[in-house]
# Entry
Amino acid sequence: MSAAAARVEGRTFLTRPPAGATRSVRDDLQIVTDMVTAGSRVLDIGCGDGTLLGQLARTKDVDGRGIEIDRAGVNASVTNGLPVIQGDADTDLGFYPADSFDYVILSRTLQATRDPRGVLLQLVRIGRRAIVSFPNFGYWRIRLALLTRGRMPVTGLLDDPWHATPNIHLCTIADFLDLCAKLNIGIERAVVLDGYSRPLKAGVHSRRANLFGEQAIFMLSRADA
# Structure
């Protein structure tokens, strides 16, 4: 078996897309990619069709694995030669040993989990570092929509109506910081993006970041690690 292949449940998958294959990625996923050290072991939770996992394999030569709850996403990832299995972040992370990956990534998925607190604790247990991104419900456009219209807002990142959204635990950047402090989770790096996916210069703990940041990306670790 070549170095570019891996065994998952008795089947062989490529750990990087075929040579010459390219796929554009969102600006936030490029920032996540930049955070990952080349050659690392990576677990991408809620990986969708494997866009980020493929980007990491192609540009960072990672030893990557993925978990996705949606069967269509799993099928798309496998079709693209990526080692992805079907699984649920709320129930399946406990099967992974501690420190089994260098990075565990949860991109725009935390707000859709039933137990965000438990999931965060699992992330920093499984990975030496965890990279988590989420939409900021404290973003000024959301606040304005609630104030002026009195209705749950629909935005580019939160684009489902309230009765159909998978997002059940929305939070602000300030809320997330508070939870990390309570769980003794360290923040090694944070990037806040505005509505045009441009990094804000304001510090992540500032009111400006919580007001003008549409989404945030955090690199986390156990504070006692």
The mean pLDDT is 90. The helical segments are 27-35, 51-60, 71-79, 116-126, 140-149, 173-182, 207-212.
